[in-house]
Design brief:
It is built from 14 helices and 2 strands; from the N terminus they run αααααββααααααααα. By secondary structure, it is mostly helical. The protein has a single domain, classed as ABC transporter involved in vitamin B12 uptake, BtuC (Orthogonal Bundle), CATH 1.10.3470. A two-stranded antiparallel sheet has the order 1-2. Helix 2 runs antiparallel to helix 11.
Amino acid sequence: MVALDCPRLEGGRDHQARLTCCALAVALAVTMLMSLSHGASGVSLWSLTLGDAMPARDRLILWEIRLPRMLTGILVGASLAMAGAVMQGLFRNPLADPGLVGVGAGAGLGAVLAIVLGGMAPLWLGAALGYHLVPVAAFLGGWLSTLLLYRVATRSGRTSVATMLLAGIALGALAGAVTGVLVYIADDRQLRDLTFWGLGSLGGASWPKLMAAGPVMILALVAAPFLARGLNGLALGEAAAHHIGLPVQRVKTVAILTVAAATGAAVAVAGGIGFIGIVVPHLLRLATGPDHRFLLINAGLAGAILLLLADLIARSIIAPAELPIGIVTATLGAPVFLWILLRRRGVVDL
């Protein structure tokens, strides 16, 4: 990992950033309790006080449904938000998004291929993966697209961020075209699966899925803070960062791989959930400053909180049915984001 002694981006906000981190940690704990306590079934945490007398139905709901769903929501929200913060630091643009490196497009195409053409897979592959076929295909699609972009953008041992951005746009368009063809030939059941997967949901969370994707997301979340000083150095520009001794190429490589792992695993387990990766780190940057030593951690906490709250609303507002979580995140976050930008449009340089 990269943890160099590069100049810090100080602006008198360190104390505020630390207080924000503490407040977000407390808010996350409260949100976790809310996530476990509320749902369409009416089962609450008070059932835990019954011990062995807890009804089997309540035990099943709490331990086998709500708990893995909550943990998945924490990891997915934190991964998407922290990946967004890394991308914004790498591109030196507060509106950058993990989708810029093609992870979202590749993961989406992999999932669509698995949904539409999964019936053509060899019997041994279907038997080995079972209902994990779509998540595995999404993860592999995200990684393969990222590696392809990295190869295109890297020449003579140096990676061009601008080339990666343009290649990511081209790859996204190509993936969209192929996806359109697959949607055209899909049947009604497959179209329904494609719709719900594309809008995102934690409804399919389970211990096996969490055990498969969780370690990848945890590894990415642990690795990301080690990029903080490198991203702070890149804020000066690549030439200046190189002159102060920052291994620019290594920082870019580790950052891209970290984003690919975090986003690919998150999309694989929860589908396409937008908004979190772009807005959460941007709003935190406006509130507490651009220092990645605090921004990355705070973004992870805030992303987990936002996704848990969105999931709580998604499964409660029209219970016993549930809304796709991507609809909730966009509905909650977009107006707030626009309001803040309108208030600060005179002082924020995008």
